[in-house]
Amino acid sequence: MPLTQISIRKGSKTETQKRTLFNEIYLSMRETIDVPEDDRFMTLTEYATEDFDFGRHYMNIARSDDLILIRLTVSNTRSADQKQALFKRIADGLVRELGVRPEDVFISLVETNPENWSFGHGIAQYAEKALPT
Amino acid sequence: MPLTQISIRKGSKTETQKRTLFNEIYLSMRETIDVPEDDRFMTLTEYATEDFDFGRHYMNIARSDDLILIRLTVSNTRSADQKQALFKRIADGLVRELGVRPEDVFISLVETNPENWSFGHGIAQYAEKALPT
Amino acid sequence: MPLTQISIRKGSKTETQKRTLFNEIYLSMRETIDVPEDDRFMTLTEYATEDFDFGRHYMNIARSDDLILIRLTVSNTRSADQKQALFKRIADGLVRELGVRPEDVFISLVETNPENWSFGHGIAQYAEKALPT
């Protein structure tokens, strides 16, 4: 169910690196917040310099043009601990597999009700599960 | 007030089909969740294969390259029943009017407070309505 | 922490105007909702006519092709008054500095928990602050 939107600078990642990026974020969700197999829905957009604005020093974190901005939408069923584990796992994975600087991993999480998802056929699959049958 | 973000594969829809897509989503919201006339704000983005990653079998739903990923942001004033009616109406409409496979309609809904919208002039119109005058 | 996504018509703003747009939104957040210095994370996307659909008269507000659609994601720590001040400040700033019509400023705000942000290093910085040390 997680929906992932990735924003990077134009030309900062190769096709292979993008593939790795998708895979690492998916694996991170699998390992920390109980995301089922094949539950991956992600888009990536590249921005020209003039269309991508970010604070290079906010919180004394030195960001570079390699900044990866990750927006996640997930159901509101995780604990604060799980979310912290997710953030750590994503950053660790991108550092290890892509050579990204840990300063360049920005994550924003938006939570929604489980009933707010339809994975096909116009059915709210997670709501259906909660209903008596 | 709904804000709609649509993601598709590059080249998978003609200009006419995009127009139909916008119209069907708008009509679905009109008919199921009390969206007023002309309240339509939507963007559509096409993604190259390397920038669009999705599970082709999650929940045993067989998705194809025609996948339409729809993100909706709406006020948090609808019942679960209304949201389920919305999902069904969108999928039915896209199947009927665009020949889309029902497996290829993915919807994610994010809800916000009514006071969180400004439709122009820097005014939070829905908050204003709630205030004593 | 605010994450800002701006949508405009293709070619409706120059590079200099985009810079002003980013700056005015940032300054508006600084002045009305206590956003810290350098806390700015924004992307801008231009849409072809066929990919950008909006109601030209919703709420009797006459929108033009210069419409600026602004999506903000912020922590859920602001009052309704602060959010109204933010909307007003953004519209006033864009009118004053860019010559935008006030009818053409659309804002949608999504709120999340403070613990839902990681600004780097895989740490949920706002959650950490709330924890005993």
TrEMBL record, chains A, B, C:
Q: Which InterPro entries match?
A: Tauto_MSAD, Tautomerase/MIF_sf
Q: Which domain of life is it from?
A: Bacteria
Task: Extract the Pfam families matched here.
Answer: Tautomerase_2 (PF14552)
Which protein are we looking at?
Tautomerase family protein
Taxonomic placement: Bacteria, Pseudomonadati, Pseudomonadota, Alphaproteobacteria, Hyphomicrobiales
